[in-house]
Amino acid sequence: MAKRTSILFWILFLIFVFGFGGYSLSKIRNTKNPIRVSNEKVFIKPEEPKKEEKLAPSSFLIPKSDRTVKNFKIPILMYHQIRDYNNPKDNINTNLSVSPLNFKKQLDFLKASGYETIGFEELLKIYSGEADFAKKPVILTFDDGYRNFYTDAFPLLKERQMKGVVFIPSNFVGALAYLTGEQIKFLSDWGIIIGDHSVSHIDLAKGSISLQTEELKSSKIALEKIIGKPVLDLAYPLGKYNNQTIEIAKSLGFRTAVTTNYGLISPSSNLMQLQRIRVTNNTNLAGFLP
Ligand SMILES: [Zn+2]
């Protein structure tokens, strides 16, 4: 009898020691390093998108930390058409076209190299020091609002949860080979940024103040009506602008403007004269990306 009681005592004793010890350990594991746990939440598990047809929230931005970014170099890539096109007699349009296959390879290269696509909102937060970045940022821009952005570029971006900016001349909306209003709205709702590219794609530097104002104001209003949200980013048509253009754009509420001037952007870049890198079908991104 005494022996049985003693065995029972030892069994209960062991359950108590290991059970309680295991509990304590798991408690400690959960609370020991709260910073690490919160970092995991920010970097590894971004909040799940609620609707299927939406770009997932960016894991790019993190609250400003002790790391300050003083010497960033951010590429803004400039695309026009994503299509198979190679005509030796038409160099201009050949150079403005990147095949869907090469575009796909370029996107995969960016992903594999640790780049994350951002928009101008995130860029402004980096400039103002409100946010730091976890990955290497890149901005993908597509000029002129070609319909092949919707048919050929967007599916590849969507598949990879990558962001892009489309600059659209408002007079081109719905024209043959250009995006329709419905497509623009759909893209915007998904998370593609819609930017302004004037009404009729003229050389603004040659226009009077009133013409320049009309070109930028009417296009902004027309695009905002389509997407139901503010249009705050501009691309100067043909890359042409002067000081008046910049002042008019600022007075109309544009927060950024991209040019066709070559270069990576840095803390000293002017937000109304942002440099870009033209991408052609044969561009090897590895050659110049930071
Ligand atoms: Zn253009």
Describe this structure in words.
The chain is α/β, with parallel strands linked by helices and 290 residues long. The chain has 2 domains: 2-32; 64-287, Alpha-Beta Barrel (TIM Barrel), CATH 3.20.20.370. It is 41% helix and 17% strand. The chain has 9 helices and 12 strands. The protein has helices at residues 2-31, 34-43, 91-95, 100-112, 120-128, 147-159, 181-190, 209-227, 243-251; strands at residues 61-63, 76-79, 81-82, 97-98, 115-117, 131-133, 136-143, 165-168, 193-196, 233-235, 256-262, 274-278. The strands form 3 sheets. Strands 2, 5, 7, 8, 9, 10, 11 and 12 form an 8-stranded parallel β-sheet that branches. It has a two-stranded antiparallel ribbon with strand order 1-6. It has a two-stranded parallel sheet with strand order 3-4. Strand 7, helix 6 (147-159) and strand 8 form a beta-alpha-beta unit. Helix 8 (209-227) packs across helix 9. The chain is globular. Bound molecules: zinc ion. Zinc ion binds next to loops.
Radius of gyration: 26 Å
The protein's oligomeric status is: single chain
Q: Determine the mean pLDDT.
A: 83
Strand content: 15-25%
Corresponding CATH superfamily of the largest domain: Glycoside hydrolase/deacetylase
Pick out the low-confidence regions: 20-51, 60-68
Question: How far from one another are the termini?
Answer: 79 Å
How many individual domains?
2
Short account of what is shown:
With 290 residues, the protein is α/β, with parallel strands linked by helices.
